[in-house]
Amino acid sequence: MSDVTTMGQLLSCQVILLMFVVIEAVTVPNFRNIINTFEPTTENNMNGEYVFSPTPNGIPGKFPKQYKDYPGGVEFYDAYSAPITTRYSQVWWQPLVPTKLPEKMVNKYNNKKMAIVGWEIDQVIKTKNGDISVPISASYNHHYVSRIIGAGASFKKVMLDGQNDPRAIKLAKESGHGMIATSQPQYIVEQGSAPKQKQQQPYKQTFSSSNGGEYRKTYHGFPPGYALVVHSPTEFQVTPMQIDTWNREKMNFTKNNENATNYVPFVPGPLPRASQAPTQNPRYSGLLECPMTTRLSKVIDGAYLVKYGGTCAVPIVTFQECYRAAAESFPANSKHIFNNNRTGSYPSLPPGCSITVNPNNPLAVNIVFNTLSSSSILCASGNDGSDATNALSGATSSLVYIGVDLDKDIATITLKGPATVWFGVGFGAQAMEDLPWTIVVDGNNGTVTERKLANHAGGRLLPISVKVVSNTVKGAIRTVVLTRPLKGLSKDYYTFDVAATNGLIPIINAIGNTPSFGYHKNKAPSKVLLVPSSSLAAGACVCPEKPKAFGLATGSLQYHSVESQPYDTGGGSVAFAAQKCAKFPSTILNEQKNPTCDIRYYQGGQWACHHMWSLLDADQEIPWTDQPLILHHKYRFWVQPFDESYHTPVHYGFGTQMLIGSPWEYDVPKCSKTIPGCSLSNDGKTWVHTISGGTIANATLVTLNFHCHAPTCMSMEVYACEKGTLLTNCNATTGKLLCKQEPVYGGTGNSKLNGSRFDEPGYIAIPGMFSLSLPPPPPLVNNNNNISLTQYL
User: Fold this and answer.
1) Where are the alpha helices (DSSP H) in 99-165?
2) Residue 93: half-sphere exposure toward Cβ, Cα within 13 Å
3) Within a 10 A sphere around the Cβ of 68, how many other Cβ atoms?
4) 544: left (phi over 0), alpha (psi -120 to 50) or beta
5) Integer Cα distance of 183 and 573 in angstroms
6) CB-based contacts of 344, cutoff 8 Å, min separation 6
7) Which of 539, 529, 542 shows the shortest CA–CA distance to 381?
8) Which one, of 588, 582, 400, 413, lies nearest residue 494 by Cα?
9) CB 739, CB 55: distance < 8 Å
10) C-alpha to C-alpha distance for 369 and 352, rounded to whole angstroms
11) Distance from C-alpha of 727 to C-alpha of 781, rounded to nearest angstrom
C-alpha cells in the first residue's frame, strides 16, 4: 500500500454556463462578411493536442481537436500578462497590472463584438531569442483568474475597506478563489458613462476554468457556436497564484522552447519540516502543498489555561498553535526568552503542548509540542511519575527581577534591583490597594524587611519570616536570595498555593529615589507563572480553556518574516471563520472531520499560502536570492467575429460552481481503515479517499471543467438526480452520470503528452467535457448535482 500523504489539496469544479440554449441547427456564416480582413489561420495549437472526456451518450470524434478546425475558421492573438517575480519558496498571489491586448486585435475588433471560442496558456520567460517555457515543476500554478474588458469599460485600481466592502464581496464572488486580500491593491471593472460605452455590451468577461497546475494541457474552449463575447476588446488582467519550486542549481530549462520534445527532470529544493512530499524519487515539490511552516503561528480565539496534573480535555493539535498559546501564557513584558521550541514524538512527555523553564534561568522557556495523541505521562509530573507541583519555578523581569522556586515546603525568592536605592516586591497583588505582603530591600546595606502595605501608604512592618541566604552587589545591581515556608505565618503573609492560583502569582514591584524606604520613584504590576523545571519533570500542559466543537473555532494564521533575510518580504494574516467547510449536503468534509475545516487542526493549504510568504521554515535561508524567476502568463486567444445568428454567448458560472472543498480546499489524509472516506481499491493495495457533496444547479452546462491538484487526484464525477429528489438523497446510486473526468498524468506514456515539454511526471492534464448540441434543459439540470472526488494516497 502506498503511504504517500499530501496536504492542502484543492478542489473546485468550475463551470461555464449558458445564458441561452441553441435548439435548432444553424448554418456556419462566412465571417468575412462581418470583418473582411478576417483571415482563418492554419496554425496548430500552441500547446499541442489535448485530452478529452467522452460525453455520456455523445458521438465520439465530432469535437475539433485543433482550434484551427473550428467551423468557419479562427484567428489567434498572443498576449502576455504583466511579470510575476519570485524567489525560491515564495508565493505570488496578487493582482497583476492590466495588460493591453495586441494592437492588431484591438483595431480589427474596434466597434465590433469578438467571439472567443477558446484560449491556451503557458508560463514563459520572455527573451530576445523567443519564449522559454517554465516547467510546472519549477513554478507551480495553483490557480489563476483572468478578466478581459472592452472599450465600454476600464480597470480601476482601488484599495478596499476590509472584507465587508461591497466591492470586496463582489470581487470574491467573481475572482477571489475564495478570498480577497484587502491589504493589496485590487482592480475593479467600471463601465463607462458615455452613451457609446453603454452600448458596447458585453463589456467584460471572466475566464478561469481548469485554472491550476493542469492549465497548460487542459483544453479551454467551447463547442462550436458557443463563445465568450466581448465588445471592442482592449485589455486583460490576471490574478495568478504561483509557487516558486525551482531548484536553480539542478534544473536548467533554458532550452525549453515551444519545440522542446523532452520535459525538464524535476529536482527538489529545500523543503520545510512539515512537507509531506516523498523523499525518495519525488515527482513533485512539497512546497506546492502549502505546508504550515514555522514562519506561521496560529492565533485561536479563546483563552488557555496551564494545567498541573491530569491531561487536557481537548489537547492542542498543531505546533503553530502550541508555540503561540504557550508563549502568551506567560505574562506580557516579563522578558521571557522563547528560543527552545521543539516538535516531535515524545513518550516521556504528556501529549500536545507543554512548557518548562531552564533550571538556571527561569526566564528561558522550553515549549514542546508532542505529536503523540496519547501518553501515560500526566501534566507536570515528575520523572518518576510523581506530582511535580511542589517543584516549580518562574520569574519575571519588571522594574525588579523576581524569581520564585518552590521545592516541597520551601519557597526560594530571588530579587535583583538597584544597589543604592530601595526596591520592593508585593506578592498576590496588582496594586497597593490589594494590601499585599511585601519584601523591601534597603539601599544602604541591603537590609531586608517585610511589610503589610496599606492603600497607597507604606503600611506596617511585619515580623521576619524569610531567611537571607545571600546578599551580594555586582556593579549597580544587588541580588538577594531568600527562603521561607510556602505557608505564610498568618493571613498578613502570602501563601504559595499553586492550586489556588493556577500557578500564576500576581506581583507589584517598585523602586525608590532614596536608600531608605519611602515614596516610590516608579512602580509596575507583573506576574510570575510557575512551571516545572526542565531537569526535574514533564512540563505543565497548555490547554484550551473552553474548546469549541469541531469546525466552530475561529482565529487567524499570522506570517512572521525573518528580519535577517532581506528577501523575506511577506507579512500579514488570514482569518478563519467558523464553519469554514459548508454543512452537509454541500460537502461531507465536516462529517469526515477533515483538518481543513478547523483552524486548530489545519495543516496546510491555500490559507497558508499568501503573497510573498516563504514556504520554508524560519531557520531556513531562502536560497538563490540573486536569481529571481521573472515569468509571464502567455495567452493565445482563438477568436471569430461575432455573428448573432450563429454564436450563443456563454459566461462563467458565478455562484453555480460545484464546490465540495471548504469550499476551495481540503486535506487528503493518510488512509487507514479508521479514516473517514478511505477505502481499499479492488487490488487490495491502493487506498482511495473520496469526498462528495451536492448543490442545486440552475443553468445549462456547455463546458464542464474540473479543478484538482496533482499528485493525488484520481477522478471526478458529476451526477444529476430527478426533480423532487432531496439533496441529501442525491448520490451516485440515485443519480444519472453527467460527466466523469480522470486526470492524465505526465510520464505515463499518454500520446497527447508524450514527447513534449509538458510530459512532467506527477503533474496532470484534466480532460474537459463538451456538448456539441444541447436540447432544452431537462428537469434534472435544475436539480441536484453530486460531485465525487477520489484521490490516490
Assistant:
1) 103-108
2) 30
3) 16
4) beta
5) 10
6) 368, 369, 370, 371
7) 539
8) 413
9) yes
10) 5
11) 13
Strands 337-344 and 361-370: parallel
- Burial-class residue 376 by CB neighbours within 10 Å (0-12, 13-18, 19+): exposed
**What grid cell was written down for 746?**
505526465
Whether the CB-CB separation of 232 and 200 falls below 8 Å is answered with: yes
Sign of the CA dihedral running 456, 458, 462, 467: positive
Separation between Cα atoms, residue 424 and residue 187, nearest integer Å: 60
Residues of the chain with pLDDT under 70: 1-26, 175-176, 178, 383-390, 535-536, 654-656, 697-698, 771-793
Indicate the DSSP class of residue 321. Answer: H
> What residue type is 194 in one-letter code?
A
* pLDDT score recorded for residue 773: 39
Output the nine-digit C-alpha cell for 358.
531552564
Q: Give the type of residue at 473.
A: V
Please give, one letter per residue, the 3-state secondary structure of 413-462. EEEEEECCCCEEEEECCCCHHHCCEEEEECCCCCCEEEEEEECCEEEEEE
CA atoms within 13 A on the CB side of 97: 5
The conformation of residue 724, written as its DSSP 8-state character, comes to T
Q: Which amino acid is at 285?
A: S
3-state secondary structure 572-627: CEEEECCCCCCCCCCCCHHHHCCHHHCCCCCCECHHHCCCCCECCCCCCCCCCCCC
Question: Would you say 527 and 533 are in contact if contact means Cβ atoms under 8 Å apart?
Answer: no
CB 99 within 8 A of CB 79: yes
| Cell matching residue 652 | 462563467
Provide CB contacts within 8 A for 334, sequence distance 6+: 363, 395, 396, 397, 398, 526, 527, 528
Hey, which residues does 718 pair with through a beta bridge? 739, 787
Residues in contact with 425: Cβ distance below 8 Å, sequence separation at least 6, in sequence order: 400, 402, 415, 438, 439, 507, 508, 509
Give the per-residue pLDDT at 574. 93
**What pLDDT sits at residue 386?**
61
219-to-42, 208, 210, 525 alpha-carbon distances in Å: 19, 12, 8, 66
Give the pLDDT confidence score for residue 17 in this predicted structure: 38
Q: How far apart are CA 189 and CA 728, in angstroms?
A: 39
Q: Which three cell numbers stand for residue 170?
A: 463582489
- Structure-derived torsion over alpha carbons of residues 291, 296, 297, 298, reported in degrees to the nearest 10: -50
Phi, psi of 322 (to 5 degrees): -60, -50
State the pLDDT at residue 390: 66
Question: Of 722, 649, 648, which is closest to residue 23 (Cα–Cα)?
Answer: 648
Model confidence, pTM: 0.87
**Which runs of consecutive H residues, i.e. helices, occur in 444-521?**
498-501
DSSP H/E element including 324 = helix 319-329
Whole-Å CA distances, 79 to 285, 395, 648, 759: 29, 63, 25, 24
Task: Give Cα 645 to chain centroid, integer Å.
Answer: 47
